[in-house]
Amino acid sequence: MGRAVRNPPIRGNVSGRSCGRRAGRTSLSRMNTILTAAALAAALLPVTALAPASAASSGACDPGQLCLWGKAGYSSARQAHELADTGIDNCVPLPAGTPARSFVNRIGRPVTTYQSAECATEAEFDTYPTGTWVPESRYTVRAFKVWEN
Fold first, then answer.
1. Which residues pair with 81 in a beta bridge?
2. Cα–Cα distance for residue pair 81/107, rounded to 1 Å
3. Other beta carbons less than 10 A from residue 143's beta carbon
4. Cα separation of 129 and 84, whole Å?
5. Domains of the chain: which residue ranges?
6. 3-state secondary structure of 99
7. pLDDT tens across 49-75, in order?
8. What does pTM read for this prediction?
9. Cβ 90 vs Cβ 145: under 8 Å
C-alpha cells in the first residue's frame, strides 16, 4: 500500500490580521511608498494624453465643424465643413485630389468617413462620435456623411 501524505503544518498568522505593532508599521510604510509612487506616475503623464496638442498647434477646428487634413498628424491644408453646408444624411465627397488622412469631428453629430468617394459601403468606412480626434485614419478618406443623433 501507498504511504499517506501529510499536509505540512501551517505556520504564522492564519487569521489575516497583523501580528503586532511592527507588522502594522511595515504595512503602513509600504502603503505610503505605493501611494507616493502612484502620485508621481500620475504627475508625469504627458498632458497630450488629455488633449491633442498636435491638432491644436497645426490649425484650429471650431465647435460645429468637421475638419480634415490631407496628411497624418493634422498637417497640410485644412478643410472645414459645417452642418449648414453639408446637411444630414447626405454623402459629401471631398474635392478631387484632396483626400484626408487625419480629421477632427466637432460638428456635434456622428460622422461616417468613407474610403469611397460615393459613400459606398463595399469599401472601408467608420462612424465617429462628435469630439473625436483621429491623427491618422487607417484608410484615405474621400467622402463623409453627417448623421442625426
1. 66
2. 8
3. 21
4. 18
5. 18-47, 53-146
6. coil
7. 334 554 444 557 999 999 999 999 998
8. 0.62
9. yes
